[in-house]
Amino acid sequence: MEHILDKDVERVLFSEEQLRQRVAEIAAEIDRDYAGKEPLLVSVLRGSFVFMADLVRQIHLPCTVDFMAVSSYGSGTSSSGQVKIVKDLSEQIEGKDVIVIEDILDSGNTLSYLLQILQARKPASVRLCTLLDKPSRRTKPVQLHYAGFSIPDYFVVGYGLDYDERYRNLPYIGVLKPCVYEGK
Ligand code: XMP
Ligand code: MG
């Protein structure tokens, strides 16, 4: 660890090397599953930008990318069922094989809503790929095709994930020290 922000991290959950390895495995699965096709990878901003950038560079198939931003009206660290599209896709997805790229699947509220919106646009297929999964927090069932790591209910930061917009630039995924939330 060598960032000023390291002092706020209780422990490293996934190192750069572990992330690199797992991302390469997911890319290999996608290469195998989409052979002969040209998937469109849709990154859900902002948390998934680092995962997306690493993942596409390990995918050997032709693929395209697009970005979407949603805001979820929730309090604190949980999201509600109310989701607003802040930035929509730039391209049409009708007839395309879409893979939604997320940083973390938690309650499932955001994703179940987003998948509904995308399905209505008549893509050939939609699959979900998330780097992290917190299954114990799920309140809305979501079908998950590619998942990097399943984790307990820790609040994690780094590798794109933030607390209060900070820590996204940490190259590993770590558990935030409770004192960072306390006094807030
Ligand atoms: P839902 O509950 O809709 O929410 O599945 C998913 C979104 O919640 C955020 N989230 C986290 N962000 N560390 C974070 O930095 C976490 O441990 C965490 N858990 C949930 C995240 O924005 C995700 O897209
Ligand atoms: Mg997110």
From TrEMBL:
Organism, as annotated: Flavonifractor hominis
Catalytic activity: GMP + diphosphate = guanine + 5-phospho-alpha-D-ribose 1-diphosphate; IMP + diphosphate = hypoxanthine + 5-phospho-alpha-D-ribose 1-diphosphate
CDD domains per record: PRTases_typeI
Superkingdom of origin: Bacteria
Pfam families (UniProt xref): Pribosyltran
EC code: 2.4.2.8
Keyword Cytoplasm: yes
UniProt subcellular location: Cytoplasm
Protein name: Hypoxanthine phosphoribosyltransferase
Domain Phosphoribosyltransferase: 18-163
Entry similarity comment: Belongs to the purine/pyrimidine phosphoribosyltransferase family.
